[in-house]
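Take one record.
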Amino acid sequence: MLPPIRGFQGTGRVATPRRAASSGFALPGASAREAGATEAIASHLNMLGLQGEWSASERDAAAARRGDAVLRELAALQLGLLEGRLDSARLNRLALLAEGELGADPALQEIIAAISLRARIELARVHA
């Protein structure tokens, strides 16, 4: 038996998370609006890339936004797999976001490359 924890003075109430109306996991705050935002980010970044040269700060900002979007998609993919469902639209968004701007900063390039590699690995695992 584990010894009791001493010195903790909680409120005495335990908060329980509320479940969504549907069964299974739900990404907190996830909505169709966020899915559309991810697609908008990908298309916006692609359009900006076609328009010409970016400054170093613009490239870094675009890479950071893409990295954030990829991480959100990976988290949602993980939850979907835990629920036993596979969303093909999510996979398409992830594939779009896996390629793109790495940024100008070498440290940021390394981080974004690692995130993109993880996305490509997950896509390969799903298609295997």
In short: The chain is about 65% helix and 0% strand.
